Amino acid sequence: MDFAEWLKKFTSVKTTLSEPMKKHTGYGVGGAADYFVECFSVRDLRETIYAAKAFGLPVKLLGNGTNVLFSDKGFRGCVISLKGLNTLKTENGAVFAACGVSLSALSGFCVKNGFTGAEAISGIPATIGGALKMNASAYGQSVSDYLVCANVLDGDKFKTLSKEECGFRYRESDVIKGDRAVLSASFAFPKKDSLTVKRLTEEYRSRRKDSQPCGCKSCGSVFKNPDGDFAGKIIDEAGLKGLTCGGAKVSVKHGNFIVTETGATAQDVYTLVNEIKRVIKKEKNVILTEEIEFIGEF
Predict the structure, then answer these.
(1) CATH level 3 topology of 213-295
(2) What 3-state DSSP class applies to 103?
(3) Averaged pLDDT score across all residues of the chain
C-alpha cells in the first residue's frame, strides 16, 4: 500500500498526484508536487502528516500560497492544502478562525458582526495560518494585536498557545516552532458599529490599491523592511523598478513587489530576487532579507 492508497483508505482527504504548484501560488509558477492533499478536518490533517512522515515524505503546509516560491523542478513530497479548514464563527464573545480562513474573509466577518481590529490587514493575501507564522501586518496593525490564543498541532498532540507563547516579532513568530502546525486562532476584537468598520476597511483597501499592484500575479512584499527604512523605498532609489528577468518584473508601482507575466518561471523570480539583493548590497550596503520562502531545488 502506497501513501495515496493509505490516505484513500483511512481519511476523507482529496489527493492529487503530480499537481502543478503554479495552480496554487500567487506567482502562478512552480513545478509539480508528488502529492497534493486537500484536508477538510483537523483529524485528517493530523493523519495525513503522520502518514507522510511514516512513508518518509517531506511535508509542506500551504495556505494561500502567497509567501512561497516552489521550484520549477517541483516538490518531492506532500503539499497539504489547508484551505478546506475554514470555520469562522463567534465563540464566547471571541472570533474563532480556522487556519485556512483568509484575512479578507476574517475582515468581512468583522464588518458584518461589528468587530474592529482587522481593517488594515484585510488586503493581505494570506490565511490565518500563514499570517500568524509571519505576524502579518499593514499600516501599523498586526494579525497578532488582538490574538487570545492559537491552537496548534505539535507532533501528534494538540496544544493551545497563549499570545505570549507565540513569540510574535516583526515578520516572525514561534507559533510553528519545531513540528507545529497552526489549526486555528481566537481573537478578542473590540466591538464597533458595522458601518464604521466597513468605512475603515474600505479606506485601507483603497490605500493599498493606490500604492500596490493589483490585478496581477504577485506574492505581496518580497523583502522585510530593514531597521529604520523601507525595502520598497530602497529598491526605488536604486532605480530597480521595472527591472525584469524573463517573465518576472519588479513592479513599477511598488519596488518591494515582483509581478509575473505569462510564461514566467520560478527560476525567473528567484534570479530577480537575488539580483535585487546583489544591487542593493553593492549600491546601498544594505542586506535585504526575503519574506518569501523558497521551496525545492533552485
Answers:
(1) 3.90.78
(2) helix
(3) 96
Domains of the chain: which residue ranges?
3-81, 88-195, 213-295
Question: What is the C-alpha to C-alpha distance for residues 250 and 268, in angstroms, rounded to an integer?
Answer: 11
> By three-state DSSP, how is residue 134 classified?
helix
Tell the residue number behind the cell numbers 481519511, with chain if given.
Answer: 11
pTM above 0.90, yes or no: yes
Catalogue the active-site residues: 171, 221, 291
Per-residue model confidence as pLDDT tens digits over 215-247: 899 999 999 999 999 999 999 999 999 999 999
- The helix (H) or strand (E) run that includes residue 290 is none
Confidence band, pLDDT 50/70/90 cuts, at residue 282: very high
CA distance 261 to 40: 32
Q: Which CATH architecture has domain 3-81?
A: 2-Layer Sandwich (3.30)
- What is the dihedral sign for C-alpha 132, 102, 185, 58? negative
